[in-house]
Design brief:
The chain is an alpha+beta fold. The protein folds into two domains: 65 residues, no CATH class; 206 residues, Fumarylacetoacetate hydrolase, domain 2. It has eight helices and 19 strands. The strands form three sheets. Strands 1, 2, 3, 4, 5, 6, 7, 8, 11, 12, 14 and 17 form a twelve-stranded mixed sheet that branches. A five-stranded mixed sheet has the order 9-19-18-15-16, with no helix packed on it. A hairpin with a 2-residue loop joins strand 15 and strand 16. The relative contact order is 0.20. Keywords: Metal-binding. Pfam families: FAA_hydrolase. InterPro entries: FAH, Fumarylacetoacetase-like_C, Fumarylacetoacetase_C_sf. GO terms for molecular function: isomerase activity; metal ion binding.
């Protein structure tokens, strides 16, 4: 099942099941019970969405504005240095524990919406990632049970303002400029996706491949991340875990390669689809 969140041409926020070039607006039927996809996950209502889809209104995808699939998560937890190839290109040693930073929902846009290069920097980098969406709450989740807490997966672009990221040892400043990252185009449920480690990811800048990796190259796999993160805090339905980026980022290229207005960046993950965003300058 593929589920998108969006704003209709009438300005109404909703969500629905993607079928080809259209979406079944199940959010309309559940407006009072589950106003957002995050609320539906918290209620364990995915099966209800499937049942409602057959009688729900069909809306062409090209008439809606896609939002991040989870547009109001309690937490967006991002993992740094989590692909072996990326660790190697930075010249660092493999970490003994996951490196974690957070992003805010205001820093993300959905598929096809512009990512914004801030006026204070030209060091605007791409980072294609697989994002995991939590479906069941849990604290101190053991690795062996971790995948039971996954609702599904989506594509993520951890757009990074590199000079601000390097102002201190904390990544926060470079990761939270408004509308600097993206997530989408939809949530693919765990049953449809299958084993994420069997998938692969490609990032393209203006049609040219800049990153390419098997998901199996993760230094800390998804069960390890869920176990570690849930030791620190309770994971809630709708929480997003961005699992890290592979080698090929613009910062470590010679010459450096950063995104600019007029560019288009794409993150494609097998089993999910393609997240595509134009780049614009902050007005």
């Amino acid at each position: 099942m593929r589920i998108s969140s969006y704003v209709t041409d009438g300005g109404v926020k909703s969500y629905g099941l993607v079928e080809g070039s259209a979406v079944r607006d199940v959010g309309e039927a559940f407006r009072n019970r589950f106003p957002t996809l995050c609320a539906a996950l918290a209620a364990g209502a995915l099966a209800d969405l499937t049942d409602a889809a057959a009688s729900s209104r069909e809306v062409p995808l090209d008439t809606v504005v896609l939002l991040p699939p989870i547009d109001n998560p309690d937490k967006i937890l991002c993992i740094g240095l989590n692909y072996m190839t990326h660790i190697k290109e930075t010249g660092r040693e493999a970490p003994s524990h996951p490196s974690i930073f957070t992003r805010y929902p205001s820093s993300l846009v959905g598929h096809a919406e512009p990512m914004v290069r801030p006026s204070v920097s030209t060091w605007f980098d791409f980072e294609g990632e697989l994002a995991v969406v939590i479906g069941r709450a849990g604290r101190a989740i053991p690795e062996a049970r971790a995948m039971e807490h996954v609702a599904g997966y989506t594509c993520f672009n951890d757009g990074s303002v590199r000079d601000y990221q390097r102002h201190t040892t904390q990544f926060w400043a470079g990761k939270n400029f408004d509308r600097s990252g993206s997530m989408g185009p939809w949530l693919v449920t765990a049953d449809e996706m299958g084993d994420p480690a069997a998938q692969s990811m490609v990032t393209r800048l203006n049609g040219e491949v800049v990153q390419s990796t098997p998901i199996s190259d993760l230094a800390f796999d998804i069960p390890k991340l869920i176990a570690y993160l849930s030791t620190v805090c309770e994971l809630l339905p709708g929480d997003v875990i961005a699992t890290g980026t592979p080698s090929g980022v613009g910062l470590f290229r010679e010459p450096k390669l950063f995104m600019k207005a007029g560019d288009r960046i794409e993150v494609e993950i097998s089993g999910i689809g393609t997240l595509s965003n134009p780049i614009v300058d902050e007005s």
